[in-house]
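User:
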Amino acid sequence: MSRNYLEKILRARVYDVARETPLEFIPRLSARLNTNIWLKREDMQSVFSFKLRGAYNKIYNLSEKQKQKGVIAASAGNHAQGVALAGKRLGVPALIVMPTTTPPIKVQTVRNLGARIILHGDSYDDAYTHARSLVKEKGMVFVHPFDDPDVIAGQGTVAMEVLRQHEDPVEAIFIPVGGGGLIGGMAAYIKRVRPEIRVIGVEPEDTPTLQRALKANRRVSLKQIGLFADGVAVRQIGKETFKLAQQYVDDVVLVTTDEICAAIKDIYDDTRSVAEPAGALGIAGIKKYLQKKRGKHGNLIAILSGANINFDRLRHVSERAELGEQREALIAVEIPERPGSFLSFCRVLGKRNITEFNYRYHDERRAHVFCGIELSGGAEERDSIISRLKQKEFGITDLTDNETAKLHIRYMVGGHAPQVKNERLFRFVFPERPGALLDFLAGLSRGWNISLFHYRNHGAAYGRVLVGVQLSGTQVAEFRAYLKELGYRYHEETENPAYRLFASAGD
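Assistant: Predicted structure:
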């Protein structure tokens, strides 16, 4: 089988549309992990993904009669762009069935490449079923996204380039896995030419399509799949690609969403490029591999398979990257409900960056604070911080690995506090720097009781804090005089309708 695919890959027609992408050494991550790490930049293709290789090779090899009738595909992303571009270059009519939920920017991108589009169903499975029915109705050729020998061979040209670009010894190559077209084609080539190189697939933990199949020794259809890494969100590995994986894939590594987000940040730090979640799987896999197999390692190569990420997803990526890298700890802290408690807590933390600080008055005895702390020493530093806080008799609950806390509770700290009297609400802006929050709280330690506090570090030059303070009588004038002395920009928000509706205190 490998000889057959070796010949098909060597003869694959891809360079009419594809470019030979660079294999780049990434110095920052290599230095941090003390291992030489290389990145195959398939995000630099014209459609920002490797998918055009297989699509073009498939359509190029059709008979003239088949080309005249046209091709059809089902896709919500990279495969659709590859088929559309191939059809345009070869003068072959292309029809793409996309789910109705496909973001408009992706629909327009495919349309700009000259393909006709049908929006059908709410999921890829709906679009796929409809596309297969249209094949019989219209007599068009279906271009499968992965389970086709010509598609597999086209994707395998990535391996051909990698081994030509890196002639020195390679320990392992880490390849994202969805339906298996990329890893099937690459593995068939690698094991024929350089059999000593380990081929390692990388999948999200919530979509272990290949890992489950290899474990069961048969193709398994997943009941549920994750959607974050949408480029590999496939329920079942392909028939042909599974045969190749059984024969040539050495191992499969599973990674979490947070680890994928951390890998996207790692890639950005080294290349200033933003990978899509599926595209960052290779780097996430390398990091997981090195955690489990400590010691000296040879050259490791990751395939950056694509960069078609929705812009609005970057918010989530940024939020979770620090957790995936274990650079942020999330803790719940119980402190006495009295003036100065916040300051005492922050002094224990010292000059560490506080990434988040949320609090709302609960009762007169104790306060619960949701706090994020920037880490430089990973889990060991987190454990040390928690130990120090417990020694100071603060009640601590570690929420770093609590999915509900990360996704929901952090945004829900607050609400009405009818038992709080004479509350005034102020919004502050101050220069963001290590220790800035501690300095800010130190200024408030004049006996005024803080009844609401919300702060989140968004990586901007300025920190933004919302503070509720209980002030009565002459304290209002004293507090205003203090604010003038403080010198930070502020706005009073006591009459803000959002506050009145959702977070106000008693009269």
